Amino acid sequence: MLAYTGHSHFISQDELDTIHNYYEKRVVEAIFEASERAREGDRNFVADVACVALNRLPPRYIRHDVDMTFFMSPQELEEMNDKVARAVNDAITYVTDREDPLEPPVPEQKPTAAGKATTKAKPATKAKSSGKGKSKSRKET
Q1: Could you tell me what percent of the chain has a pLDDT over 70?
Q2: What percentage of residues in the chain have a pLDDT greater than 90?
Q3: At what angle do helices 22-34 and 43-55 cross, to 10 degrees?
Q4: DSSP label at 105?
Q5: Which residue among 18, 56, 58, 109 has the highest number of C-beta atoms inside a 10 angstrom radius?
Q6: Cα separation of 117 and 122, whole Å?
Q7: CA separation for the pair 58, 56 (Å, rounded)
């Protein structure tokens, strides 16, 4: 393990900070490409989708992104991009399907001309219903 305390003088914290999962940046980029909600600034949604998508992809730890592109064929890179797109699309569906449709809208902070933030309610997002365990209420006569 790189961060083993007994050998910490062999590797600095700066060197450890350069290590990252190659898919992290690619997943976040794909979320913004695929989701209007992400582009509108819903940070919680982006984080939830990123976590789900990254958990569906194998970790690929690297120090420099150029290392991946240099040592892989164009076909391998295309396969990785396809995996990211599938994982992100599945994650978006997974997250939106599990949102509570009865949850109150999250207030959105908008700065005013005076520099103070005002609260504007965002409309609640409707989750897709699987139809399981839900019954339609009948109209009473």
Answers
A1: 60
A2: 43
A3: 130
A4: P
A5: 56
A6: 15
A7: 7
